[in-house]
Design a protein that fits this description.
By secondary structure, this protein is an alpha+beta fold. The protein contains 8 helices and 4 strands; from the N terminus they run βαβββααααααα. Strands 2-3-1-4 form a 4-stranded mixed β-sheet. Strand 2 and strand 3 form a beta hairpin. The chain starts with a strand and ends with a helix.
Length: 245
């Protein structure tokens, strides 16, 4: 008897019930035939990004191989606390068999995504670094432009410009820089996302929600970076600014 997964049944036995059909462990003419007695759900075997693949589960005692066996134990408490008991039980049941690499499902899963987790942490680090650079660069540019236009701002305020007008003037410049950056950077980000498609899990390179969140976050950073220069410009004393050269 043998149990197959859903992908196996759909690929090799489409449009019919898989139960009752026979499969062989090899393609030899004299190979032993096994009857399909069940269909199991699909599962991942090596990594979370792998595609579903057809699998057949043969009874260990009926297969002509000397492969290793994996025993899975479900516990009510902490799995690590049961490890000494598991070793003792295995030694009593089969003293000539070695217990190789005992680990929990959490450890197995963590090991399978260790490289993905490292890549995610590196991406997060460089993402935070990029945000800091954007905020610092934007703040420096706007602060420099405000300092250069101190006399102009003072003249505007002397002629009747209100503080909120000056505030909006500086913030508007940061929004222009933001829009230019989005226009130039968005196509490049989509292109890089396509190149890194193999490293993405559960996301598409052109995912609109992700890009929307990123653009909104950059807009918040741009506004926050421009607020201090804008506030400083709007609080300029017109008489002092007119004497500024």
């Amino acid at each position: 008897m043998v149990v197959v997964n859903q992908t196996f049944a759909k690929r090799y036995l489409p449009g019919t019930s898989a139960l009752g059909h026979t499969v062989a462990y090899s393609n030899r003419a004299d190979a032993k035939q096994y009857t399909i007695v069940g269909v199991a759900a699909d599962s991942k075997y090596t990594e979370v990004r792998e595609a579903w693949r057809p699998m057949a589960y043969f009874p260990y005692t009926q297969t002509p191989t000397d492969a290793s066996m994996t025993v899975e134990l479900r516990t009510a408490g902490s799995p690590a606390a049961f490890l000494p008991e598991v070793r003792r039980a295995m030694k009593e049941m089969a003293p000539d068999l070695a217990l190789l690499q005992p680990r929990t499902q959490e450890q197995e899963f963590a090991n399978s995504i260790s490289q993905d987790r490292l890549f995610a942490r590196l991406a997060m680090f460089f993402g935070v670094l990029a945000v800091v650079l954007v905020a610092t660069g934007l703040y420096g540019i706007l602060a420099y432009k405000v300092a250069r236009r101190t006399a102009e701002i003072g003249l505007r305020m002397a002629l009747g410009a209100q503080q909120h007008h000056v505030l909006w003037m500086v913030i508007r410049e940061s929004l222009v820089l933001y829009i230019v950056g989005v226009v130039l950077g968005l196509p490049a980000a989509i292109a890089v996302g396509r190149l890194l498609k193999a490293t993405l899990f559960g996301l598409q390179p052109e995912d609109p929600v992700t890009f929307g969140i990123v653009l909104a976050g950059i807009a918040v950073v741009a506004l926050a970076a421009s607020f201090v220069p804008a506030r400083r410009a709007s609080s300029v004393d017109p008489m002092v600014a007119l004497r500024f050269q």
